[in-house]
Predict the structure.
Amino acid sequence: MAESVRWGILATGGIAAAFAADLVDLPEAEVVAVASRTEASAKAFAERFGIERAYGDWAALAEDTDIDVVYVATPHSAHRAAAGLCLEAGRNVLCEKAFTLNAREAQELVTLARSRGSFLMEAMWMYCNPLVRRLKELVEDGAIGEVRSVQADFGLAGPFPPTHRLRDPEQGGGALLDLGVYPVSFAHLLLGEPSDVAARAVLSEEGVDLQTGALLCYDSGALASVHCSIVGGTATSASVTGSTGRIDVPGGFFYPDRFVLHRDGRDPEEFAAAPSDGPRNSLKHEAREVMRALRAGERESPLVPLDGTLAVMRTLDAIRDRIGVRYPGEDARGAVTPV
């Protein structure tokens, strides 16, 4: 692969703009093309970020052989179609989270990527954050003993009108897939896939979850309590408690600037992010991991493995099964996989 990794961006919304802005700052990255459902939107985005080619349909971007990897930034209801189109055309893909609407769609993308020998990764940038990686290392090294519980929350105050994508069933709306994927992924990072799931939610008139609480149960005896909301701004904090200590992430746990390690019989220790690793650079860590993997010839990232993504999607399916949320086009049995 050439020294500069050539990126295509599929979609032109807010997260696509944030990612493009970070890519522009990386000397080893080059954004060469963008696509949207309309040529006008693609051209406006291209002019904003100095991108050479703008396409008014997804297929043209997928067929562009000058692209090393496509970043899919559509709403998650379109991830299966958009990422699948790119993989079918032989492109490598970084796909936003939630990875898909359900585990069935996620498995289809993973199977397709593996059959084509293409790189595929969920854009779970939390896993690429150096401070989150340090937290995981401490837990794995036994700094707090055996993990007993994990807690994490992510809520936005809103209010969001019924016309907003977060309230729209057609776009996979609700708190769980948009926000709850972070607490669930944090729990998965430290405990893996649960053996049982309990959940309750408050649903909107449209049938999406306004707020959801879930208890994830593990064969080890550990429990994870996760919460998400689009009707109340939460602390976005997290903690992991072990048999001999605890780690607290006081806020913004998915892009932390610090966390505190409490060990029995010892003074608390604070771990702070380096200035270059702070929240404003979170997407850059993700982009660097994709480019590292591509240069190394890897087909998936060890930081965001596809089997882990599938496990998270199965957990999200199980939570939706418990709270009674299904999206248009999902059948009553095959789309949601109970645990």
Observations:
- The chain has a mean pLDDT of 94.
- The chain is about 35% helix and 25% strand.
